[in-house]
Amino acid sequence: MFMSFSHEDVQRLLQLLDSSHFDELQLEADGIKLSLRRGGVISSPAQNAPSVPEAAATPSISAPMVAPTKVAPQVSDDIPLLEVRAPMLGTFYGAPKPGAEPFVSVGGRVSVDTPVGIIEVMKLMNSISAKVEGVVVEVLARDGDLVEFDQVLMRVRPS
Question: Residues 73-106: pLDDT tens digits?
């Protein structure tokens, strides 16, 4: 069975996105990937996917994308880095409240049960633990980012 999106389907999705508190919607079905973002373009287009026009919920000029920050040099290329991944889709917060110090930062040591962030799903705050031991060398997720299931949030050099 092949699924396609009609103009009306896309318009309805745009209306749903516009009336929600989300900034981005990504839908994938039967090899078709549709990505919608409020006020801008999607930062990483799908690779090897059929071409599907992308639409913005509200037309505006998007701010330039900022590269992930806080990257520490890797000591040895022989030691593979461990990845802390999002266990669910939602909004990532790196600190317990706005303006507070982040749970972890580059150079910080984490253990299996160290909280590294919060993912908000439907107004429910879920504490995310590192599940690895080591030193944080890269933080990829920024406060307020919409993260997908299994997206890399940070990289850790094992201790």
Answer: 444 557 899 999 999 999 999 999 999 999 999 9
Which pair of tokens denotes residue 45?
A: 């287009």
The domain ranges of the chain are: 1-62, 82-158
Beta strands in the chain (DSSP E): 24-29, 32-37, 82-85, 90-93, 109-110, 115-121, 124-129, 134-139, 146-147, 152-158
Contact 54/41 with Cβ under 8 angstroms? yes
3-state secondary structure of 90: strand
Q: Which CATH architecture has domain 82-158?
A: Beta Barrel (2.40)
Spatial contact of 146 and 119, defined as CB atoms under 8 Å apart: no
